[in-house]
Design goal:
heterotetramer; A mainly alpha (102); B mainly alpha (321); C mainly alpha (99); D mainly alpha (92); A: Helix Hairpins; 3 helices; D: 92 residues; mainly alpha; flat
């Protein structure tokens, strides 16, 4: 298997792991980690598929998109963490009400 | 030799999957964060192996520096009085798993992933994508690094909107919380010296990445991330900006990137008739101006995001009390 | 292979041995204070040897300068973090291992 | 020389994998953080070796950024996330 497809499959796997954790875990910090890992998986598929150019330099357009994606992901993470802290301060729980099992 | 790289790639891929699994499955939140930081480190190596050094630079600055610091600070605020070891989620609260029928999402996701994997593998093994178009227009773009050419020229409006997204995230954070501007406990001589010693080097490296981005991996996002990391290190070392800087000067620095971008977009619309279509002779200079402004804004936005709230609300409250 | 290559290879392999020693230390030492040795000594020496080994092969002096800058930054980082962790661990009363 | 660089990079990656055990095992938060710090140094070495093996100078810049940001997470840990009293698992 070529490097591109090897990493593309790893990206798919990361996406699946993140999606599963996003569904089954209640704690919001874990959900934020899961979303980040899902995002990394998508980025990895994009960049891996851009490398299918043989010996020529890889496609630069997905690279540029992933760079902005990484920076936007970290800012979205910061916003999500603030939301989580606010929820925790108001309700005393870092889980969404539907997910809480009393 | 090809065997060696193949083993390296497989090992790296397996480590990434394993780290992601452990980070998402272990009950201990602190451990999960450390594993996630290690995951970011290995992601940077994976980008290197995928011949994407620009992406690796961004991941190195953000995955290895900013994300870890953000998560650690959030975890500390989540459990301010945590006395027991390592922030373990107590098993009696049973909050890690809410679903008693976990097999349902597991099977669904397994099916979806199998489908995705099949789709990925059925793609043609050789595809140039847009790389030929990028290479053909590289000469008139004003940058010889194709990634910079795409970011600042061919898809400049994307980059403009993405910088606005950063600003929106910061506005969201500001509307939710007020910043904690009180001076933290004394950092101690080692941390203080470290921050003083490294800050000039951070700024120098950011400027270097910005400059080198025209013809080699680097550019505004990577430089901005390094600049933001410098701000985070200073904040961690207990430095707080003067309150006078928090009102108008901070806001001006935050919007200078998007503002210059919009001005250039309007000017090119008037002169060339197309938004962000630079005249080839001035493209290099325009890209450098845009990137410099964007770097400053991105860096300050990231550091302000780490501060975690509106710095002005805090001042107002303090003045009243 | 010319003599430079042999020198470079020897330095690189010695560096790798130090990295191995660092990992062994991280895994086998009994408490956090002793494990700091792995961070501050073994791995930093290992990286130093690798930097020198690669500097022998470097195509220009600016590359040598960059390699040395990287090593210096890692040394500063390792030393500061080791100090912060050790003093923090002492403050929090993490006990030292006694043989 | 190229196979040697790649073999050493692979060796360091294996080293890194072995160090993962300390992150999982702990026992204290400081131990986990220490292991993550070591990963940073190892990753710098891997990047420098790959830079030489593939004759790609940009990888040295990535190593430079890694080295520069090596302290960030650990400083955030020490300044913010380290619990004040930590159960001493060593004595058990």
């Amino acid at each position: 298997m070529s490097t591109a497809f090897l990493y593309a499959l790893v990206g798919t796997g990361l996406f699946a792991l993140g999606l599963y954790a996003l569904i089954v875990h209640a704690h919001l910090l874990r959900k934020i980690l899961a979303l980040n890992i899902m995002g990394s998986g998508v980025f990895m598929v994009l960049v891996a598929l851009a490398k299918r150019t043989g010996d020529a330099p890889p496609d630069a357009v997905p690279h540029a998109m992933v760079i902005t994606g990484i920076v936007v992901a970290v800012s979205a993470t910061a916003l999500a963490l603030t939301l989580m802290l606010k929820l925790n301060a108001k309700s005393g729980h870092a889980e969404l009400p539907d997910d809480r099992r009393e | 030799m090809t065997l060696l790289t193949w083993i390296f790639d497989s090992l790296l891929g397996l480590s990434l999957l394993w780290l992601a699994w452990r980070a998402l499955a272990c009950p201990n939140l602190f451990k999960a964060i450390v594993l996630f930081v290690a995951f970011g480190l290995l992601m940077a190596l994976a980008w290197v192996r995928l011949a994407a050094p620009d992406v690796a630079l961004a991941e190195a600055a953000i995955g290895a520096g900013l994300t870890g610091a953000l998560l650690m600070a959030a975890l500390a605020k989540l459990h301010p009085t945590e006395a027991h070891n390592d922030f373990a989620v107590p098993p009696e609260k049973n909050v890690t798993k809410v679903w008693s029928w976990q097999w349902l999402p597991a099977i669904t996701i397994l099916l979806v992933t199998t489908g995705l994997g099949y789709v990925v593998l059925s793609l043609p093994p050789y595809a140039t994508g847009l790389s030929t178009e990028v290479a053909a227009n590289l000469e008139i773009s004003g940058a010889s690094n194709p990634v910079t050419a795409v970011l600042l020229n061919f898809r400049g409006y994307d980059t403009l909107l993405e910088i606005v997204v950063l600003l929106l995230a910061l506005l969201g954070v500001w509307s939710l919380n007020s910043a904690d501007l009180d001076h933290k406990a004394a950092p101690g001589i080692v941390l203080d010296t470290l921050a003083r010693l490294l800050t000039p080097i951070f700024i120098l490296v950011a400027a270097y990445l910005l400059w080198v981005g025209a013809h080699a991996p680097g550019g505004a996002f990577q430089a901005g991330a390094v600049l933001g990391a410098a701000g985070v290190l200073l904040l961690l070392a207990g430095w707080r900006p003067r309150t006078g800087l928090m009102a108008l000067p901070l806001r001006l620095v935050l919007v200078i990137g998007p503002a210059i971008f919009v001005i250039v977009a309007m000017l090119t619309l008037l002169i060339a008739g197309q938004m962000l279509e630079y005249p080839p002779t001035q493209a290099g200079a325009l890209i450098l101006i845009l990137e410099t402004a964007a770097t400053v804004s991105i860096g300050v936005t990231l550091a302000a995001l780490f501060l975690g709230g509106d710095p002005r609300k805090n001042n107002r409250n303090k003045n009243h009390t | 292979m010319n003599p430079n290559d042999y020198l470079s290879a020897a330095l690189l392999i010695t560096g790798a041995v130090f990295f191995l020693a660092g990992t062994l230390g991280l895994l086998r030492f009994p408490d956090v204070y002793t494990r700091l040795h792995a961070l501050t000594k073994a791995d930093n020496v290992g990286l130093g040897l690798m930097v020198v080994g690669l500097a022998v092969q470097a195509e220009s002096w600016s590359v040598v300068g960059k390699l040395l800058l990287i090593w210096w930054l890692v040394l500063i980082a390792g030393a500061s973090v080791a100090h912060l962790i050790a003093s923090g661990a002492l403050q929090r009363g993490i006990r030292m291992w006694k043989p | 020389m190229q196979p040697l660089y790649l073999a050493l990079a692979l060796f360091l990656l294996l080293n890194l994998g072995a160090g993962m055990w300390r992150v999982l095992r702990g026992p204290t938060a400081a131990d986990r953080m220490l292991a993550a710090q070591l990963f940073g140094t190892t990753a710098v070495a891997i990047l420098l070796l790959l830079a030489q093996a593939t004759a790609n100078a940009a990888l040295r810049d990535i190593a430079l950024v890694f080295a520069l940001l090596a302290t960030m997470t650990a400083v955030a840990f020490v300044r913010r996330a380290w619990p004040n009293r930590e159960a001493n698992h060593e004595s058990k």
